[in-house]
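Narrative progress, year one. The postdoctoral researcher (J.K.) led the effort to move from monomer predictions toward full complexes, under supervision of the PI. The following entry was the first complex the group processed end to end, covering 281 residues in total.
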Amino acid sequence: MAFNFLIVDDSPVMRKVIIKTIRMSGVDVGELFEAGNGAEGLIEARAHWIDLILTDLNMPIMDGLTFIEYLKDDEVLRSIPVIVISTEGRDDVVQRALDIGAADYITKPFRPEQIGADVLKILGYSNA
Amino acid sequence: MLNLNNKEIIITVIDEIMTDMFFIFPDLDDDGKKVSIGEISRNSIHVGIHFNTDFYLHFTIDPQLLSEMAMNFMGITQDELMQEHIESMACETANIIGGNYLVRVDPNATCNLSIPEILDPNSITESDNTDEHWTIYFVAEGRLMTISPYNRK
């Protein structure tokens, strides 16, 4: 079964790195969608079947926390797991993201295998 | 009392980030003599990242260094590298360094990290210098990266 991913980050470089990491993780990759901020992320999430969202927090127009709140407020979208990948590593921010529904939180700098392991774990791959 | 202007911590953070994330091994150039300082404005990309309404860190990064970082980070070749990657790499560098720096100097989250922005070097003047003003020079792959604190008035 192939999984569809949505990567939300205002950095084209970071989106490319995350996509590469997902492909290298061993998960069966279906389609990969990208967005440059939370508002675009909502549009993509509503337009396509998404199995997992990876989002930054610090973005223009709509930041990551607001994006997650909108997702969790939506009857259809709330079940999509969200991994936060952010340079923001302060405890209260991490906790807030988890409290509003993020499935996990990875701080930058990260090792690619961290993202790969997280993706596999959340999608329910064995031995993850 | 919160002190956002901490040269020693920024040096530590930069060394860690450049090595762990971008596989670049910078040398600290204490007196800025290894590379012509005049090259900073001509060749480098200027990026600013704010921690509150006034204080910001100003990065200048040689585009060749950014190209190396981008290729290492994204795992792409020179042929695949685009201009948008270089500017995005500059902003992401400031973002990751700024974020890791802020965690250490402001663990109680009284400040918010801004979105990095590409700066016009002509917009920065000496009147923006912080009271304790410094510039750190890093040389990596023969290319220069500098960091300085400023107060936008």
